[in-house]
Amino acid sequence: MSGHSHAANIANKKAKIDAQRGKIFTKLGRELAVAAKAGADPNTNSKLADAIAKARSFNMPNENIKKCIAKAAGELSAANYEELTYEGYGPNGSALIINALTDNKNRTVDYIRTVMRKHGGSLGNTGCVSYLFDNKGVIVVERKVGLDEDVVMEYAIEAGADDVVTEDDAFTVYTSVQSFSEVRKYLEEKGLSFFEASIEMIPQSKITFEGENAAKFQKLVDALEDLDDVQDVYHNVDLPEEDEEE
After folding, report:
1. Neighbouring-strand partners of residue 86
2. Percentage of the chain surpassing pLDDT 70?
3. In this structure, which long-range contacts are made by residues 206-210, counting pairs with CB atoms below 8 Å and at least 24 apart in sequence?
4. CA 133, CA 11: separation in Å to the nearest integer?
5. Which residues lie across from 123 on neighbouring strands?
6. 245 or 191: whose pLDDT is higher?
7. What is d(CA 203, CA 74) in angstroms, rounded to the nearest whole number?
8. What's the whole-number mean pLDDT along residues 20-30?
9. CA separation (Å) from 79 to 29, 55, 214, 224?
10. Measured distance CA(206)–CA(141) in Å, rounded
């Protein structure tokens, strides 16, 4: 569930999700279980409501969502997952932030460190690259026929969003972390459909890789995302579209 792509290449991103649906559902299930430990009712637990919205944006079936919540509520056995964030450096001056959910911290950091080294990166200390990113709510709204840009802008302003970026196939609504739940709920009530709805680390500026450097960096991101314990990978690289699609 990478954080480096929003409205661009939606069709390719959805194809990738379809191909990896089982693994993605497992990761989403962990997020739901962790969020539900603070309460199984999304009406009183905004973190759970956000996790449900994220799961639905990936077309996770309602039955799967209910099972994950029940697991956390003690109706089924559940592992005790810990939320962890790692920061590091990729090749050629790139920066990465890696979010994980794990029941074995030592295993997770060993796996991440090994992948980083194999692909020309290294883990750093807390804070080494996070200052290059802003933590924001990101809601990618599907641009359906008849949905006008002015209408989305009006809804976003009414809900308290910070910004709206219009692209060919979607509208990306940015919010503060504090207002994300409220904005997401408001847009849902207005009948808008989401490609994505989550809190992400957004790079303040990007660097561009092409050719071999882009391919090398993409392999690093793919390898990190393939780790079972890794939930999200954020970075500051603006990859060419042909590399994003691979």
Report:
1. 98
2. 87
3. 206/236, 206/237, 206/238, 207/92, 207/93, 207/94, 207/236, 207/237, 207/238, 208/237, 208/238, 208/239, 208/240, 209/92, 209/94, 209/237, 209/238, 209/239, 209/240, 209/243, 210/240
4. 26
5. 88
6. 191
7. 38
8. 84
9. 11, 19, 37, 22
10. 23
3-state secondary structure of 133: strand
Which pLDDT score, from 0 to 100, does residue 246 have? Answer: 41
pLDDT, one tens digit per residue, over 196-209 is 888 999 999 999 99
Neighbours of 19 (CB within 10 A): 10
How far, in Å, CA of 222 to CA of 98, rounded?
A: 12
CA pair distance 102, 83, nearest whole angstrom: 7
How much is the pLDDT for 242?
A: 46
SS3 192: coil
Helices (H), 6-120: 10-19, 21-36, 46-57, 62-72, 105-118
Q: How many CB atoms lie within 10 A of CB 36?
A: 24
CB 110 within 8 A of CB 68: no
Alpha-carbon separation of residue 43 from 39, 49, 117 (angstroms) = 10, 7, 43
With cut-offs at 50, 70 and 90, classify the pLDDT of residue 245: very low
**β-strand pairing of 207-208 with 82-89:** unpaired
Strands 122-123 and 82-89: antiparallel
Beta bridge partners of 199: 137
